[in-house]
Amino acid sequence: MRLNALVENGEILFEKGLYIPALTTWEKAKKLALTFDEKAFVLDIEAWKRRYFVDLRADLWDENVLPSFETTAKLIQQYSTTFEIQKIYFKSTKYIKTNAYFRNPEHKKEWDGIMENPILAIENEPDDFYGKLYFNYVHANYHNLSNNEEKNLYFIVKNLHLWKANPLLIEVEPIRYIAAVNNYLGMLSKFGRYQIFVDYVNAFKPPNFNSISQKAVYFEHWWLWKEITFKIAGDDKAFEVFIKETYSDLLKYAPYINSVRWMLIRFGIAVNYFKLKRFEDALELTNELIDTKDIELRKDIQAHTRMMYLILHFELKNTLILESISRSLKRYLIQSENYFETERAFIKHFNKLVNAGNKAEVDKIKNDLSDEVNTIFTNNKSEKMAFITMPLSEWLKIKFKPDLT
Fold it and tell me: H helices within 254-316, ranges in order?
């Protein structure tokens, strides 16, 4: 609003023939625009300045018009570069939100080729704020998908420092800043840096928010951060209390919450109910999640929901429909092009469970499945990390205690 007012005031002064006050006003606007990396405003201001010097001050062309063209050319180049990097960023972010990992060799090869684009070379990192922001995110996303822990965190932390160095931009774009914090915390959780995660969440001070929609976005992030702190502590009862305490706010903010994160929140609640053996409550939520047809992202969570759905019916002894649900789950996993070793083992052994004749057989099959999954998790870090959100380990009595050192 301040930028618009300054630019428009300059235009009014210019049209009235008050050229020097107009130039002074535009100079204020330009400084403000540069502070907030608003290139479009600077381009507009430079065009007005050139109009003055070209039309009215031919004697000052060399010292004003030519530098203005140079400034404009540089801004356009920055704009173009940032735009191209931004396109790659959105493509990589969509991939992550759909798959979470490179699970297909062809996909990895495709992204290796994309990262060879010269505009993504480390020595070509942009100078402007948004250019740097998206440049770092593209590299962070690539290393996230590749499970390159140190490099992923390096670029994530670079963006946190970038925001901290520009506090005025945090005031203007608090949600983008929260997204940067969320990316950092997500990687700490993914790579098992639990104590750093807990300390950061407990000490975090949010910026100011100007609307209920902004407050809702922060609430949904904060809720998911707190969920992870309870998981790290292994305190399912405390998380259950937290769910009760925040449920009214969840409902209040639900219309403003991103559909994918709303799915994650409900999945987190369902997992809590599952762990506490509140199977009927968990089943009600998983039914809702499976019936949600308009979410194409986070297919990993959708797959885990369906696996939990099958386990819940088994625990509730709904034996007549287990075989049908198992076939449906297998089709879903195969069609998603993301068929983990863990999922294959789960389907193979679960089909035996469906036909088990007594408790001894059930226990043996579950032990066999537990041993196979344990071996997979031990030998394949990607598999273990992919199932962090899935209560499969608890069901199979596989315990991976968080390292808080």
Answer: 259-275, 279-291, 299-315
CA nearest neighbour of 256 among 283, 220, 293, 296 = 220
8 A C-beta contact, residue 345 and residue 317: no
In angstroms, rounded to a whole number, what is the distance separating the alpha carbons of residues 402 and 100? 21
Question: 287-323 burial, b for 16+ CB within 10 Å, e for fewer?
Answer: eebeeeeeeebbbbbbbbbbbbbbbbbbeeeeeeebe
Q: Is residue 48 classed as helix, strand or coil in its secondary structure?
A: helix
Instruction: Work out the end-to-end distance of the chain between its first and last CA atoms, rounded to an integer number of angstroms.
Output: 48
Domain segments of the chain as ranges: 2-79
- Measured distance CA(363)–CA(396) in Å, rounded: 10
CA dist., res. 314 & res. 321, Å (int): 9
What does the pLDDT look like over 62-99, one tens digit per residue?
777 888 888 889 888 888 998 999 999 998 888 877 66
Measured distance CA(339)–CA(384) in Å, rounded: 14
Tokens coding 288? 């809702």
Q: How far is CA 390 from the centre of its chain?
A: 18
| DSSP at 321 | G
Structure tokens at 229: 């702190």
Reference 187, options 340, 388, 398; nearest CA is 388
Whether the CA torsion 146, 150, 151, 152 is positive or negative: it is positive
Rounded to whole angstroms, the Cα distance separating 378 from 238 reads: 30
Contact 212, 256 (CB under 8 A): yes
pLDDT in tens, 94-124: 887 766 667 677 888 888 899 999 999 999 9
